[in-house]
Amino acid sequence: MQATLNLMSFNFSIRRNLFYLIAVLLFLSSCGTRKYTVKSDTKASKAADAMANLRSKPLYRFITDWTGVKYRFGGLDKGGIDCSGFAFLLEKEIYGVTLPRISRDQANVVKRKNIDNLKEGDLVFFSFGGNDVDHVGVYLNNGFFVHASTTRGVIVDDLTLPAYQRVLVKSGSVN
Q: What would you report as the CA-atom Rg of the chain, rounded to the nearest whole angstrom?
């Protein structure tokens, strides 16, 4: 009789533990089905939208392939690239256009366009250090552009930010 009581107690203990295990698993799995939303007004979500809205799939692939590559003055490869080198490679590979290598010279060969009329692949030029052009990026859409940032590497950025608006000196197309 003692053995039967021990066996019943043991079976009850197993059933109770099994019940708790199933309850915990159900709870955890229900947590995994929650829908998490990203605020659609964040800078990251807007940059992602700009990338998703690119008409040129080769441009999309080019940018995603280069995103995060570190800035290196004079660089022209995945080990490091500068802004004019990035624009130079992008325009050549995606649009078949050969630009000069330096941003100031690149600005001299573009046909000026109003910022409101920019199209995918147009260039935007900045002067962070005075009057001369010293930075270039490639316009995407909806106020976003891609460039090789000196601090963040190749990145999609918001052209409407005051920091860029204050130093934007020219925009236009190569054709």
A: 27
> Distance between the two ends of the chain, CA-based, in angstroms?
97
The residue annotated as part of the active site, out of 103, 135, 138, 157, is 135
> CA-CA distances (angstroms) from residue 6 to 19, 47, 86?
20, 65, 76
DSSP helix/strand/coil, 117: helix
Task: Say what the pTM is.
Answer: 0.76
In sequence order, the 6+-apart residues with CB closer than 8 A to the CB of 157 are: 47, 137, 144, 145, 146, 147, 149, 164
Q: What is the pLDDT of residues 1-40, one digit of tens each?
A: 555 444 445 455 566 554 554 544 444 444 444 444 445 5
Q: Is 147 considered catalytic here?
A: yes
Q: Which two structure tokens, joined as six digits, stand for 20?
A: 């708790």
Phi-psi region of 129 (alpha: psi -120 to 50; beta: other; left: phi over 0): alpha
Kindly name the residue from 50, 63, 83, 138 that is annotated as catalytic: 83
